[in-house]
Amino acid sequence: MILIPIGTKAQLIKMAPVMRSLDREGVNYDFVLTGQHAETMMDLITVFGLKKPAYILAPIIEANTHQKLRQWLVRILKDGLPKSSPISQGNYQYCLVHGDTLSTPIAALLAKRHSIKVAHIEAGLRSFNIFHPFPEELVRIGVSWLADFHYSPGAWASQNLKLKGNAKPIINTIENTLLDSVRIALENDQQYQEGNTPYAIASIHRYENISNEKRFNFIMSQIMDISTQCPVRFVLHPATREKLSHSHWQEKLLSSPRISLVPRMDYIKFINLINKSKLIITDGGSNQEECHYLGIPCLIMRKHTERQEGIGSNAVLANYDPQIIQNFVKNALSISAHSIKPIINSEIYPSDTIAKHLKSLL
Question: What is the pTM of this model?
Fold first, then answer.
């Protein structure tokens, strides 16, 4: 039996195709929620056609403030560490943890506490700067140390694990499982009508951006500037929405006729929104990968990225430099739609690789 703890929307999106592949292979698993995030989680479960969670490790909240995050952390450790925990009662052989959210090391530690082997999916990604992104880079390093084996999304990620003298098994899935998630979304395209007017997408939510007042102000001013060249659809994550509600920027954005504040939507709609856009301004690593798969120009609002996808082709690191941002937008708006070759039609299926490997272990 396999334990699959999921804490955030991003984790669920990337693990959904793995669970679907495990279903096809006839491998038994318990999908459980850690309770870190609540918004849109049940919608995603429905969208991807997943079975309902077996149980919830801690009461579901939206841990979008420091206080709520601390409350969730205390509760999940209190409920998950004792031998009476459902983790201890599940007869699990392996625990699949994903990525770099706070749920990742917590789930890995709980699995170790209950003598369950840990497999890290999306292992080996590195920015080689512990402050960018923070704390995600530290999380990945720590989970690599805890894991018994790794599923790495490519040769570069695999080599990063080997550089640290890692002697644990590394299974190269060639691409990220997100490639399979994007495929599922495109297969379920419900022909969302976005009109004929070109538009850009903004998606900003990382702690390093919204907690730093100077950086947050810079990003908001850049989005305002970009909107003068192309209408912007600003997709609001819970943490960003909370930040804006206590900021003068909310009124400015709402009063702009060229900016639309868009509630976070289901994954299928979001991918098709990206697929029909001219460009995306984002600080999310998943968005960087999605744009790489789809061939969409992507401005990464960060100094460093732990991913290589798209860098040098469709993706540019903004480095919080106005000139880099202006050049990117100018170039992105001048190219024809999908002139950058996407890789969505490749014959690589990383989720199947993981499921078949786990089946062989069991």
Answer: 0.88
Q: Is the pLDDT of residue 36 over 90?
A: no
Q: Are residues 94 and 161 in the same domain?
A: yes
DSSP H/E element including 170 = strand 170-172
**Contacts for 214-222: CB closer than 8 Å, 24+ residues apart:** 215/320, 216/243, 216/247, 216/249, 217/249, 218/320, 219/301, 220/249, 220/252, 220/253, 222/281, 222/301, 222/322, 222/325
Q: How many domains does the chain have?
A: 2
Residues 321 and 227 in one domain: yes
Type of residue at 259: I
Task: Looking at the structure, tell me whether residues 26 and 84 fall in a common domain.
Answer: yes
Q: How confident is the model at residue 195 (pLDDT cuts 50, 70, 90)?
A: low
Could you tell me the residue range of the domain that residue 239 belongs to? 193-334
Across the beta sheet with 298-300, the strand order is 259-263, 232-236, 200-203, 279-282, 298-300, 315-317
Q: Establish if 343 belongs to a structural domain.
A: no
